[in-house]
UniProtKB/TrEMBL annotation:
Residues 18-128 form the Response regulatory domain. InterPro entries: CheY-like_superfamily, Sig_transdc_resp-reg_receiver. This is Response regulator. It holds the Pfam family Response_reg. The modification 4-aspartylphosphate is found at D66. GO terms for biological process: phosphorelay signal transduction system. Keywords: Phosphoprotein. PROSITE patterns: RESPONSE_REGULATORY. NCBIfam families: PRK13435.1-3.
Length: 146
């Protein structure tokens, strides 16, 4: 009985995770947001630059961050700050994963664009489970930072 209560509590925690999307391509950001909302999760906000991302950070648990944004190649700095200063689980989504091949301190990993909705769902499930201390399988499309 206690196990079922814990599992129910953990499942509830999974769906309460809020996702910040840091992406300057509006249609890509909307598509990511629709996928997240379709999973029953909340989008904490859409940001296209450093200022917006850091302003929305207190509302988020998970973040998908592009490398090149409206204010230049600020994604790695944003991702580091989101992870270190706000405790957000960060995954980079970029067409240029080699730019951050050595990793970004505090961030979980990187996936190469384009990213299919099924991969976004796997990533959200992985990051949400990881945040609440549940076992989760790393999506095969993600390169995990050491």
């Amino acid at each position: 009985m206690a196990t079922n209560v814990v599992r129910h509590w953990q499942r509830d925690d999974l769906t309460k995770q809020r996702v910040l999307i840091v992406e300057d391509e509006f249609l890509i950001a909307l598509d990511l947001g629709a996928t997240v909302e379709g999973m029953g999760m909340q989008v904490a906000g859409l940001a296209s630059d450093r200022e917006q991302a850091l302003r929305l950070a207190p509302l988020a648990d998970i973040a998908f961050v592009d490398v090149n944004l409206a204010d230049g190649p600020t994604g790695p700095e944003i991702g580091r700050r989101l992870a270190q200063e706000h405790g957000i689980a960060v995954v980079f989504m970029t067409g240029n994963p080699e730019v951050i091949a050595d990793g970004v301190k505090g961030a979980v990993g990187v996936v190469q664009k384009p990213v299919m909705p099924s991969v976004v769902q796997q990533l959200v499930n992985y990051l949400a489970a990881r945040r609440v201390g549940m076992f989760a399988v790393v999506p095969s499309q993600m390169t995990v930072f050491a």
